[in-house]
Amino acid sequence: MLIAGLTGLEYRGYDSAGIATIFEDAFQVRKASGRLCNLEEELHKHPVSGHVGIGHTRWATHGKPSVVNCHPHCDHSGRVAVVHNGIIENYLELKEMLMRQGIVFRTETDTEVVAQLLGYYDQGDMLATLQKVLPMLQGSFALGILSLREPEKIFAVRLGCPLIVGSADGASYLGSDVSALLEYTRDMFILEDLEIAVLQEKGIAFYHPDGTPLEKKSLHISWSASAAQKDGFDHFMLKEIYEQPQVLLSTLKHYVEEETFTFRWDTLPFTKEQALNLERITIVACGTAYHAGMMGKAMIERLARIKVEADIASEYRYSETMSGEGETLIAVSQSGETADTIAALRKAKERGHRVIALTNVIGSSVARESDAVMYTLAGPEIAVASTKAYSTQVLLFAVLAVALAQLRGQITAQESADYLRELFSIPGKVDAILDCRPQVEAFARQQISCKDIFFIGRQMDYYTSLEAALKLKEISYLHSEAYAAGELKHGTIALIDDSTLVVAIATQEKIIEKTMSNVQEVVARGATILLVTSHPELDGAGIAERWLVPQGRDLFLPMLTMVYMQLFAYYMALQKGCDIDKPRNLAKSVTVE
Ligand code: F6R
Q1: Is 286 in the pocket of ligand 1 (CB under 6 A)?
Q2: Closest CA to ligand 1's atom 9
Q3: Is the dihedral of CA 489, 495, 500, 503 positive or negative?
């Protein structure tokens, strides 16, 4: 069961794994570095018993990936075992304090400090011990704790990192996200910061940080367990790319009436009054979600005529940016647990801004801490590289842009309906692009020896380029860069030669000729050109390959273009033999700063 749970969380990225069970008044601990199959092998050689246990996949922060450093960690006396996500920032100070008391440390990790502290103070009542120890910890944590003095219990507590518990059929479970528990229960409890859960066979008791009992409401998760299976695809990433038509449609139908092309206003986070009073929107996010935010900026500014900034969450959280009245912050996050995005939204709240979450995970931290939420209905995204979450985020920005434009009187109800009708045509167009998969695969095969790839485009095509380059980097480890096409000649064109592949994206009518001039500049330097365009008339000299994007309004074409780019990254990674769903060094959910 522990291994199955860890398998459900494997997609989050890790470099070692371990478990501990309690059997006959002792811990049975097994660990292995590398993939979970190594731990399974270890368990075949040295099986464990018990009906109370904890498991962990570690992504190294303090101390290298190794068997010694991987969790669970036990205290000096061997009576407490701990698994931990997050970072204990004051661990050195605490470690020195404990060493002065004669405690001997075995690892380089910050987590061992938690195990040692709990062991040092515990007199047989872990709930009381937690009340003493938790205030000593600075940083972030989600902890699963076993104590030999209370062998029928598992203690769980968190600060800043997600932790979910649930019980069903005479058993209780904890996990760092819903995927690990889906097989057992859909009714889950999401722990808030410093709330303590005590899990037992008969159920779960909750406590406030001061130890007084707490009543908690469960949350029903409608995702099916099979949504987290590959369904015959070789990789989750490919499966998720193929799910896009369906998840785009279900997301759209949640916000818009298909029969009338009108909004379901109660699902949108703005009233007419709020929309009219909006002076500025800031969008914050990380990585792919940030790229979706850039699309959001373009669409909202163009349709609703509101000033929008898109900022990287890790920058925004420390910025001294000028902010004013009437400002709304939109935090975009697939997982809803990205530490920097959470910090950015907290900063915005301190500044008195209204905060709207755009997230995929019901009950996630970003959702819970925001004033209003728009969910992408993408279902669980398992591959580390985000695809369907990105498309649904961009779609939601399109929905929001049209809604705000209508509320602010920038477009009529009829124009709004025309935009929405067009949005309903997107899933079918995505399907048409997916049918071009053999062409994408064949071209990727020809590029096997390619070392540098540049993605160029202007405005929204540039934003697509940023996301295309990120996708390629993270799963194929190929060097790639995105450039605003007009900026290339200000330095970077020096890198272009006959060994470079340049992917030119040209969908935005107004600036298409400009991008094509930039294409000619790189052709002249011998680069191989892949042109991705919605304009069939663009072809000719120097263009090695052309992929056609179905026609439509410029504003919505990036949703289509990106599907080609996702497939391209996938096939480049495939032929390089990369671990596509779990790329090196990456974690799906970045819950530490
Ligand atoms: C890239 C990718 C990451 C995430 C980023 C934010 O494919 O998935 O760049 O987009 O780590 O994650 P969320 O959206 O969960 O906040």
Answers
A1: yes
A2: 287
A3: negative
What's the pLDDT at 391?
Answer: 98
Instruction: Kindly state the average pLDDT of the residues 23-29.
Output: 95
Rg (CA), the chain: 25
CB of 338 shorter than 6 A to ligand 1: yes
Query: Measuring from atom 16 of ligand 1, which residue has the nearest CA?
Result: 333
Distance CA(513)–CA(523), nearest Å, equals: 15
Beta carbon of 32 within 6 Å of any ligand 1 atom = no
Q: Is 364 in the pocket of ligand 1 (CB under 6 A)?
A: no
Cβ of residue 382 lying under 6 Å from some atom of ligand 1: no
Model confidence band, residue 13 (pLDDT cutoffs 50, 70, 90): confident
pLDDT computed for residue 117 by the predictor: 97
Ligand 1 atom closest to Cα of 471? 7
Tokens 């104590």 found at:
147
Residue nearest to atom 3 of ligand 1 (CA): 287
Burial class (CB in 10 A: 0-12, 13-18, 19+), 544: middle
CA distance 344 to 359: 15
Instruction: Give the whole-angstrom CA distance, residue 188 versus residue 317.
Output: 31
Among 161, 283, 286, which residue has the most ligand 1 atoms within 8 Å of its CB, making it the best to mutate? 286
Is residue 324 very low, low, confident or very high in pLDDT (cuts 50, 70, 90)? low
Which of 288, 294, 387, 393 to mutate for ligand 1's pocket (most ligand atoms within 8 Å of CB)? 288
Cβ proximity of 147 and 154 under 8 Å: no
Q: What is the pLDDT of residue 128?
A: 97
Which string of DSSP letters, residue by residue, matches 87-120? Answer: EETTHHHHHHHHHHTTPPP--S-SHHHHHHHHHH
334 lines ligand 1 (CB under 6 A): yes
Q: Is 568 helix (H, G, I), strand (E, B) or coil?
A: helix
Tell me how far the alpha carbon of residue 338 lies from the centroid of ligand 1, in angstroms: 8
Which of 429-461 are b and which e, b meaning 16 or more Cβ less than 10 Å from the residue's Cβ?
A: bbeebbeebeebbebbeebeebebbbbbbbbbb
Q: Dump pLDDT digits (tens) for 478-504.
A: 999 999 999 988 988 888 898 999 999
End-to-end CA distance of the chain: 31
Which residue puts its alpha carbon closest to atom 5 of ligand 1? Answer: 287
Cβ neighbours for 282, distance < 8 A, ≥ 6 positions apart:
308, 309, 310, 311, 316, 321, 323, 327, 328, 329, 330, 348, 353
How far, in Å, CA of 535 to CA of 523, rounded?
19
Say if residues 314 and 340 touch (Cβ distance below 8 Å): yes
Calculate how far, in angstroms, residue 390's C-alpha sits from the geometric centre of ligand 1.
9
| pLDDT recorded at residue 430 | 98
Beta bridge partners of 120: none
Q: Is the Cβ atom of 288 under 6 angstroms away from ligand 1? A: yes
- 231 CA to centre of ligand 1 in angstroms: 23
Is residue 86 within 8 A of residue 113, CB to CB? The reply is no
Does the pLDDT of residue 224 top 80, yes or no? no
Q: Give CA separation, 239 vs 8, 232, 246, 384, 566, in Å.
A: 16, 8, 12, 13, 12
Residue type, 100: R
Mark out the alpha helices in 9-150 (DSSP H runs).
36-45, 91-100, 111-121, 126-133
